Amino acid sequence: MKPILYIVIPCYNEQEVLPVTAPMFLQKINDLYIDGKISEHSRILFVNDGSRDDTWKIITELSQIDERYCGISLSRNRGHQNALLAGLMEAKNKCDVSVSVDCDGQDDIDAVDKMVDEYLSGSEIVYGVRSDRKTDTGFKRGTAQFFYKIMRAMGADIVYNHADYRLMSKRALESLSNFKEVNLFLRGLVPMIGYKCSYVEYSRKERMAGKSKYPLKKMISFAIDGITSLSVKPIRLITALGFIVAVLSIVGIVWSVITRLVTGHTGGWASTVSIICFLGGVQLLSLGVIGEYIGKIYLEVKARPRYIIEKKTDEMK
Ligand code: UDP
Ligand code: MG
Fold first, then answer.
1. What's the pLDDT score for residue 270?
2. Ligand 1 pocket check: which of 212, 213, 307 to mutate, most ligand atoms within 8 Å of Cβ?
């Protein structure tokens, strides 16, 4: 029996790019089927992440043209990670293997061939890794690289230059479904699953149409979410900072006692005030970092649903 492949594609306000890229995805599963690598029941599963434009209309129209196009629609915008999870969890019940990819055509779809080969030779997870980012703007490239470095330094184990373009077997998806966290950061979670994994390189292209849905503000909050949901290193750094400040103040105390004894007076309104302000700043910053974790705990304890599926195309019902 050939494996059933589901290509899972989150879409948020992608009416410009969907008509361009959808036929490419279809062509890909068609080619793989002709090559005898996958089953004829393989599908393309679009996840409409509460788009405000005609994305869902396009998806339903596509599903009427060809039964290999399917879709689910979330009740509102829940963000890329939740939309992707929704798609993967729906695919899990129907497929043997899934590939997640963005709908803008930036990730070279031809890499799926190599991913499927790796799967057929025993890998449960295959990561798509960008071999170069020449087509990204210097700014995007710089911030993305900075992001990976910070993540690593903060103790989050993520695959360098890997976004959410990856193959996961049914078994890996079932294991992923046991991770119940609300603060979802798939790039950090998937390596935690384990199993045999491998890497496939591809070159990153330009967005075929439409605009990036990840402006700098979203990227920064994505990075902070990533760090705080994967590692407690920032809290450890605060402990270390507290320790350093304590040692420095002991040195300061000794210094003031000695100058008092030697010169007969200790001066310095300015130095006192600046030290107080400095420590105030350090304390507020530390509280902010701890608060970030408490906020995460708050959300986890509530355990609200990560997504709600409102509509499905006929194939997915
Ligand atoms: N996306 C989504 N929900 C969102 C934002 C983005 O489903 O709230 C999807 C988007 O449609 C695309 C993918 O996530 O398929 C990646 O977004 P984008 O290409 O804008 O990010 P970039 O490649 O610029 O980092
Ligand atoms: Mg993109």
1. 72
2. 213
Q: How far, in Å, CA of 167 to CA of 280, rounded?
A: 48
The verdict on 100 and 44 lying in the same domain is yes
Residue type for position 25: F
CA pair distance 248, 140, nearest whole angstrom: 40
Tokens standing for residue 200? 């496939």
Same domain, 286 and 188: no
For ligand 1, residues with CB inside 6 Å are: 10-12, 14, 49, 77, 79-80, 83, 102-104, 106, 212-214
Residue 95: give the domain boundaries. 5-230+305-316
Q: What's the 211 CA to ligand 1 centre distance in angstroms?
A: 9
**Which pLDDT belongs to residue 210?**
75
Given this model, what pLDDT does residue 135 score?
Answer: 67
CB atoms closer than 10 angstroms to residue 241? 13
State which residues of the chain have pLDDT below 70: 133-136, 266
Extract the tokens encoding 219.
């990227």
Nearest-CA residue for ligand 1 atom 19 is: 212
Q: Which ligand is nearest to the CA of 82?
A: 1
Count the domains in the chain. Answer: 2
Task: Give the Å distance between the CA of 70 and the centre of ligand 1.
Answer: 19
Count other Cβ atoms within 10 Å, centred on residue 44. Answer: 24
Same domain as 251, residue 138: no
Q: Which residues contact 195 (CB under 8 A, 6 or more apart)?
A: 123, 124, 125, 169, 171, 172, 175
> Atom 12 in ligand 1: which residue has the minimum CA distance?
102
The CATH number of residue 75's host domain is 3.90.550.10
173 within 8 A of 91, measured Cβ to Cβ: yes
Rounded CA separation 134/112 (Å): 21
